Structure formats: C-alpha cells, structure tokens
Amino acid sequence: MALLTVQGLVQHFPVAGSRKVVAAVNSVSFDLEPGETLALVGESGSGKTTIGRCVLGLIRPTGGLIRYRDVEMGGRRTVRSPELRGKLQLVFQEPAESLDPRQRLYEQIDEPLRALGVNRADREKRVRAAAARVGLREAMLGLYPAEISMGLQQRVGIARAMISEPEIVVLDEPTSALDPTARAEIIDLLIRIQRDLGTAYLFISHDLSAVRQISHRVAVLYLGMIVEQGPAAKLFARPSHPYSVGLLSAVLLPNPTIRRESRISLAGEIPSPIDLPKACYLASRCPMVEERCRTRMPEVETVEPGHLVRCYRHEEVVRDGDAVDYFARFQAEAERILGAGMPPQVSTGQPMNESERGNVDHG
Amino acid sequence: MSDRQPQDPVIALEGLTVAFPRYGGEPVRVLKGIDLALAPGEVVGVVGESGSGKTMLARAIMRLVPRPGRIEAGRISFDGRDMGQLDGEALRRLRGRDIAMIIANPRSELDPLETVGQQIGNVLRHHLTLDKPAIRARSLELLRQVSIPDPERRINAYPHELSGGMAQRVVMAIALACQPRFIISDDATSGLDVTVQAQVLELMRKLVVERGTSLLFITRDIGITAHFCDRVAVLFAGEIVEIGPRHAFFADPKHPYAILLLAAYAQNERLRRYWLGDTTAGAAEGPATTGCPFARRCVRAQDRCRTEHPRLEEMAPGHFARCHFPVER
Questions:
Q1: Is residue A273 part of a domain?
Q2: Is residue A266 scored above 50 in pLDDT?
Q3: Residues A67, A97: one domain?
Q4: Same domain? A154 vs A175
Q5: Which of B162, B265, B278 to mutate to test the interface with A (most CBs of A within 10 A)?
Q6: What is the tally of helices (H) and strands (E) in chain A?
C-alpha cells in the first residue's frame, strides 16, 4: 500500500470575468512509497506547485482522488486537520520569506510542537535535536532570521518541517534560491535526513542535477500533465519523451566537454494553460510532431514496468537518443578532476552506499 | 583613436578597488584590485557566491557604485579612454549606447506603464537621432533579432502581458538597441526555465559572434560558464582568485575555492565533504586575517596562508590563480 496515491488529479482555476479556466493540473496520477523521493520536474507553469498544494489538502482539487494512508484528502481533511497535523509538511523555496522575521529561530522550530500540544520539556529536547540534525549550532537558536545566511535559513525551514516527524514532506524548490555551496549542503542534508528518518519526499524542482542526486523516481510535467514517469537512473539515461530529452539537453553541467547533443531542441515557450492544445500538449514545440499528434492525445504507454510515457513516437526517441546518462558521466569526470590534490587516505575511502538511489547507476 | 589595434581590449580594468566607509574603522573593500580586460567578441564569465562582489563589479564598470561607496583606486578604460575622466554627460552618452547592462528579474527593469515599443524607442531616441518611423522600424527589427514571435503585435504589449522569457528578451532588445560594443549581463538568465535559458544564451552567443560584442557574463551558475564563456574568472571576497581559458579552467582548476565551487556539484560524498570542508554553520566565521581571505575555509590552508596574502600568478599560459599551494595535476 502506497503512502500516498494520487489518481486523475485535476485542478482548474476560474479566470475572473470569463468563463474560461486555467487548467493547471490535467489528470495526474502517481504513488509515493514510504521513505521514497519522487521528483516533479518541469518548467514554470507546468503545475508542480499546484500538485504539491493539492497533496497537502490546501486546495480542493477540481477532480480526481488523493489518498493518504488510504483515506481521501481534501474538503475538511487537510494538512490542518487535527488527525493529520504534523504528518505532512512543506519546505518552501524562499527561506527568508517562509520564516517570521520577528521570531527567534528557536521559537520558529518549536512552533509546530506547540501546536501539537507537546509538553515543554519534550519540546526543548526535540528542538535541540532537530537543530543539531540540520547542523545549526545551539548558540544560533537565539538569533533572528535576518542575522543568518540563506543556507542557514533553509536549514531552519527544514528543521521546522522535520520536527513533527512527518511521513511526507513536500519540498517546493528548496534549493533554487541558494548559492551552489549552500545548495550542495541542503541536498546532502535532505538525503541524510531521509536515510535516518525514512521520510517520503515529494521534491518539486527545475534543478535537474539536484533531482538526479536526491530522487528515486521522476515525473516530468508539461502543462499539468505527466508526460513521462520512471526510475531516475532510467529516465536520465534513456529519456523517452521529446520533452524530457529537451529538458535534459538544456542542462549545463560544469564541464565543457559534457553535454547532451540532441536533435531535439524545444522551440518557443510553454503555451497558456487557459487555451490548452487540443491533442498532444507538446505538439506546438516538438520537432518530431506528426499529424496524429495534432489531432488526438497519445495514450500512456509502458516502456518497461514503472517507466511510463505519453508519446506516439517514444520508441524513436529512445532509438535516436544516445542512451548516455550525462549526469553520471559528469560525476565520473568530476571524481577524476576533484580527486587530484586530495590526500591519499581521503581519496581512497569506502565506496558509496545507497545503491538504490538513481545516482550511482553508471550504465 | 587611430593608433588602436583591432585586438586591443574593449574594456580594461586595472587595480579596480571599491570601498564603503565604515564609521570609526577601516573602509570595507568590496572589490580589491581587479585586473581584467576583454578583447572584442570575447565572453568572460564571472562566478562567485553572493557577497563576493559580482554585482558591485558590474556597477563599478558602469560607474554606478551606490553611495556612500566609491571607486577608491584603479582605472577603467573603455576603448582606451579612461572612464574616470568623463563627466556625467559623457558617461550618460556611453551607457546604453556603447555599454549596456542586462540584469536579473526583467520585470523590475521594465516600466509597467509603457509599451515595449515605447521603451525600446526611448533608448533609440536618446542616443541616436532617428525619426518616428525609423524608430518603429528599428524596434521591430530588434524584436525580431531577439526572436520575439509576432513583433508587430508585441510592440504594443505592456510588460505584464509578457512571459518571463519574453520580458528578458525585450530587455535584451533594449540593451542591443544601439549596437553596444560591450554588454554586462548580471545574473540575467537565473530566473528563466532551462529551455528558455538555452534559447537566450544561444541568442547572446549569436550576437557576440556576428557583431564582435564583448560580454561580461556574471552568474551564480558555474555550469553555464562551462559551455558559454571563453574565459572564466572566480571571484572571492572581492578578488579574482582564479581566471583562465574555459577548457583549462574546468580540466585543471587550481584554486581550492574554484575546486570547492565545482565540488558542490559532485555526488561523491567523500570528495564533496573534503573540498567543502566543515559545513557546520558558521564554522568559517571570524575576523579578517592579513593572509589569504579564503584560508579560514580552505582545506589546504597552512600557516603561510594565514599571514601572507597570495598574489595572482600565472600557472599555465593565460591561466592565473591566487594561491600559495595551488593544486597540481
């Protein structure tokens, strides 16, 4: 039994002064297992954040089902309901804006526990443990958000989300506002916390290298529809949807010799969700478009168990692709370049564990 | 200036130092002795974390250092002319015509009350003597150059009617209006989606190649510089700590801070932990030393680093690093 099941989720928003709607989410289905990270990736306007809000029950879906532990979410049952309090949490993109500028860090981390009615002695113990877990020194807990860096603010946001020991955390672009070094530290921290606590993450991001590191599975969204979904290592090495290929080729990794050379590059921009394309949503930007793509929406097809794609020509996409995981190749090169200058006892340490996470598959 | 050679730098910074006075203390120097020259058609990437002085570098070149900060020392020359000698009027003529700047967040740069056409027209009218039909024709041509679909319609659009990518292109069209010789891009692609970013970069690349425009590309994203810039400069605490040709820099980074920036993308925990050092928050804080400003965070730091400030030295042809103990490969 999956921890979270989303089936045929639809979310339309009315447009003021018009009978039209903004079709933000269009029939999205996925599962989330305990201790797993599912990434939702896509451009702005693809519906990532809206899905996250629906999952938390913050907005009531127009259609479809969201079940958490086999009970339906939405309506009265939201993240605010007493029986769900603390079970589902959210980490935001802008760490500074998600914290109260007039509260000390200690109080901010403590707040969820106060809301849950935990007694003072337990609270204090748990706040200190949570702070230590995210790498905040005790002395910092008396500071205000403006007195610490953005990377530290995000650690506070994470400590606050984790303190109630949630089963699911929605991470909405948690690394996008950060410097590269702070970003790396936050990714590390999130992976470590999941390893220790078994929290499930719904990781919303357009930072594909972060997605590659943190996710077990990836769902690629386009105009509120999942166009491809599969295990991270598979999807990054053999993307089957032209949109996934386009997204992956646009990523610039810090090594000038490594870049996905692709015939598929996406022209133009994402169409308006007010006037959705009639058939395949990507038809207006896709270099492989055919007549049928403009007349009928392709069905979801199974590439292999757990790897789904919605494209008529997905076999050609894979056949013409180079089946190379550039992220993995980049990592191999990075190890070579960064290995120099390290003392031998450090550079010949133990191999990485966690082979189930997409990241170590060099195939 | 007939004695100028075609390969002479378009813009040259020599010992550029920007300082902010501090009450009852030494001024804070946010840029310290920056030397940098861009040849015509050259793209130089500048990377560094927030607070390293990237944006101040852009502003100093434009001579737009916010008060009470000031250019304390150094020289900026454009086309061999010392910009420090120019009066306000001459500077105004230079900015926007010969030197253009593109900043992040295009929406805040555009006037919400004026149409795209009016805003491009403003620049053309100010710097070039064109009549109305010529301005319109030139504006449409510019919009076409930055790949805006349906320019006849978009020229009458207000900024809120544009997507982020489209707004950034309009800002680029404004920057390009007078065919500048030198463009500063300050984090201009950071708010864009990757696919749109790829389109904008391609466009910039095309302009540089076709017109020989020089481009100073300031960014937080070291990944872009690997594919887009001819040379890469790393800024730390207001100093260039490493600069070199793109391929040499990424294949053989010398300065531990440059390596740290690259290690931030590594998945291998041992590598990352080693180069990123003690990430316990605040471990690297404390008063400034007389030595290398990076010493406190540096895994390779030795006693000499804490007392003696390193100089920028040439490690390989055109590849410089400011480190007593650069990494050898």
A1: no
A2: yes
A3: no
A4: no
A5: B265
A6: 13, 12
Q: What is the SS3 string spanning B272-300?
A: HHHHHCCCCCCCCCCCCCCCCCCHHHCCC
pLDDT one-digit tens code per residue, B163-190:
877 888 899 899 988 889 999 999 888 7
- Strands B11-22 and B25-38 come out as antiparallel
CB-count exposure of residue A269 (10 Å: 0-12, 13-18, 19+): buried
Domain count, chain A: 2
* pLDDT band at residue A349 under the 50/70/90 scheme: very low
Which residues on chain B are in Cβ contact (under 8 Å) with A178?
none
Inter-chain contact B253–A255, Cβ cutoff 8 Å? Answer: no
- The reply to whether ipTM tops 0.90 is no
Q: Which domain holds residue A115?
A: 92-163
- Tell me the backbone φ, ψ of residue A4, rounded to 5 degrees: -135, 135
C-alpha to C-alpha distance for B212 and B206, rounded to whole angstroms: 10
Contact B250 A255 (CB under 8 A): yes
With respect to residue A277, please indicate whether it lies within any of the assigned structural domains. no
Q: Which residue of A has its CA nearest to B197?
A: A250
Contact flag B195-A337 (C-beta cutoff 8 Å): no
Q: Which of residues 311-350 of A touch B (CB under 8 A)?
A: 330-331, 334-335, 337-342, 346-347, 349
A271, closest residue in chain B (CA to CA): B163
Q: How many CB atoms lie within 10 A of CB A76?
A: 8
